[in-house]
Automatic annotation (TrEMBL):
Naturally occurring in which organism (per UniProt): Terrimonas rubra
Coiled-coil positions: none
Top-level taxon of origin: Bacteria
Alphabetical list of InterPro entries matching this protein: NAD(P)-bd_dom_sf, SDR_fam
Species lineage: Bacteria, Pseudomonadati, Bacteroidota, Chitinophagia, Chitinophagales
Similarity comment text for this entry: Belongs to the short-chain dehydrogenases/reductases (SDR) family.
Protein name: SDR family NAD(P)-dependent oxidoreductase
């Protein structure tokens, strides 16, 4: 049975991704920041959530090693954990940048590194990092400097990983969402037109479809 690692399964996107892969009979290894250990089995398929502080390198590595030990066929890792903060350059502090880097970069890097090593040994696998438009476009980051800088690191991480894959079928991609239709975003933008916002389930469907596509289409960014 193939398996997938999904971080942030208590969040809107992470939960949708976990539900999608679980429905397609993948063993799901999920992480939550707080809460009790959770496990559900259906039709011989297991979805289990573990409480892990992904800003802690050792804790993230231990979680990944446990997942690999339980199921040596890790097909994909979808790393959705992150945070957001507004603030232009005048209001941005080093401490604010560090907080965003911890939430948006290190939580992904600490899982991506051991998972990448596992996938390279297998010769195949997919890692999905959740970027953002402000992380890619500096003009969009002017009002959210710390957030944009931290998300930009994920694009560079994907490039470094892909440059290191030794022509194996191990690929890192960056998911670049539009505004995701979540209760939190609706609350934060009560007057916004939500008609163009993207549903978490739709993003999950796109990630899953890309993951199971056996042919490398050369696309390293998924705009959703």
């Amino acid at each position: 049975m193939q398996s997938v690692i999904v971080t942030g399964t208590s969040g809107n996107l992470g939960k949708a991704v976990a539900q999608k892969f679980f429905s397609e009979k993948y063993h799901v290894f999920g992480t939550v920041h707080k809460g009790d250990v959770f496990a559900v089995a259906k039709g011989g398929v297991i979805w289990e959530d573990i409480t892990v502080d992904l800003t802690d390198d050792a804790a993230a590595k231990a979680f990944t090693e446990t997942a690999i030990r339980k199921n040596k066929d890790i097909k994909a890792a979808v790393l959705t954990v992150g945070g957001f903060a507004m603030g232009n350059i005048e209001k941005t502090t080093a401490a604010g940048i560090e907080k965003m880097v911890q939430l948006n970069f290190y939580t992904a890097f600490h899982i991506a590194r051991p998972v990448w090593q596992h996938m390279m040994q297998r010769g195949t696998g997919r890692i999905y990092l959740v970027g953002s438009l402000p992380g890619e476009d500096t003009h969009k980051a002017k009002a959210m400097v710390a957030y944009g800088l931290s998300k930009s690191l994920l694009f560079h991480l994907a490039d470094v990983l892909n440059a290191s894959n030794e022509n194996k079928d191990v690929i890192a991609k960056v998911v670049v969402p539009n505004i995701i239709n979540t209760p939190e975003n609706k609350k934060g933008m009560p007057d916004a037109d939500t008609s163009g916002w993207t549903e978490p389930a739709a993003i999950a469907d796109i990630i899953y479809a890309d993951c199971i596509n056996a042919v490398d289409n050369g696309k390293r960014k998924l705009y959703v």
